[in-house]
Design a protein that fits this description.
Elements lengths: L9 E6 L2 E7 L3 H8 L6 E5 L11 H10 L6 E5 L3 H11 L8 E5 L5 E5 L3 E8 L5 E8 L5 E2 L1 H6 L7 H5 L4 E2 L5 E2 L1 H4 E2 L6 E4 L10 H4 L4 E5 L7 H6 L5 H10 L4 E5 L9 H8 L5 E3 L9
Parallel strand pairs: 2-3, 3-4, 4-5, 13-14, 14-15, 15-16
Antiparallel strand pairs: 1-2, 6-7, 7-8, 8-13, 9-12, 10-11
Helix pairs in contact: 9-10
Bound molecules: zinc ion (2 copies).
One zinc ion (ZN) binds next to loops.
């Protein structure tokens, strides 16, 4: 439930200038406006499961983008039960979207959902009261990084920069060769973000998230309420820390706090005993992966 200024789940993952939206709880479009997340950079939305705190904001966002004249196709990946709901909302209002809407049903197990030049997105099953998926996003390197002043020094024409990014040397008109490593440096290495959605404490999905740089894991409860967490297919902060440790992650982001807790810092304090680099995530904040 929304509480203490906190809204239901939605995360904007920025990869190479694109925004990937994971879950779309109530008021996501309002929060996007508030925090300057541009829907024009959004082409893919991933919905983990059919609990309302993860998708009640989706019909509104889909409609608003149409009212604002969106033209680019939109791809939504989610449970099979979600499409008829979206269809019903649109058909009773006789809505005709201004853009192509593609819905992709998540399989029961793991799968590659997107694999393009810039990143891959995979889904994997977690253990919740109903079927639920986590998502694994891995950015790709975009070749070598140009050092412009070096390129100018060696008088390499601009049109050749793409070839330099692909690692090629440059041969001058006089036959002298400019080695690629003289004018470029290594591009940023790939980074992986694991979003573990809503889940009870289990090592069943470690095999999918092992080696992820940053892990997001829910902690609906503190450890003193571990019995409640287990009964409701949720986790505690301590359990989230154990998952991050098992996954050998660099960083852990916590979230999905129960509305019964006013402060979220105690979640981070509890987790810190088991995993050092942990943040109790707060909406509107940006975290490096
Ligand atoms: Zn749930
Ligand atoms: Zn939830």
């Amino acid at each position: 439930m929304p509480a203490f200024g906190r809204h239901p789940t939605a995360q904007a993952v920025h990869v190479w200038g694109e925004v990937l939206l994971i879950d779309c709880g109530e008021s996501t479009q309002i929060q996007m406006q508030r925090f300057g997340v541009k829907w024009r950079h959004l082409n893919h939305i991933f919905i983990s499961h059919m609990h309302g705190d993860h998708y009640f904001g989706l019909p509104g966002l889909i409609n608003s983008m149409s009212l604002l004249g969106r033209a680019a196709p939109l791809h939504v990946y989610g449970p099979k039960e979600l499409l008829p709901i979206i269809d019903a909302i649109q058909s009773v209002a006789e809505t005709v979207l201004t853009y192509e809407f593609h819905y992709h049903v998540l399989p029961e197990g793991d799968a590659v959902l997107v694999d393009n030049e810039y990143y891959t997105v995979k889904c994997f099953p977690v253990e919740h009261r109903i079927q639920c998926h986590g998502f694994l996003i891995t950015s790709k390197t975009r070749g070598r990084k140009i050092v412009p002043e070096k390129c100018r020094e060696y008088e390499i024409p601009r049109y050749y920069y793409d070839k330099l990014k692909q690692g090629e040397d440059y041969e001058k008109a006089d036959g002298n060769v400019v080695k690629n490593e003289w004018v470029t440096v290594d591009g940023p290495s790939p980074r992986t973000y694991a979003y573990c959605a809503d889940t009870l404490f289990t090592d069943s999905f470690i095999k999918y998230i092992k080696g992820a740089h940053t892990v997001y894991h829910e902690c609906t409860y503190m450890e003193k309420d571990a019995d409640k967490a287990a009964a409701r297919f949720h986790s505690t902060a301590k359990q989230a820390a154990k998952i991050a440790k098992m996954a050998a992650a660099e960083k852990l982001l916590l979230g999905h706090y129960s509305s019964k807790y006013r402060d979220v810092e105690p979640f981070a304090e509890e987790a810190k005993e088991f995993f050092e680099n942990v943040y109790a995530s707060i909406e509107g904040m940006t975290y490096d992966v």
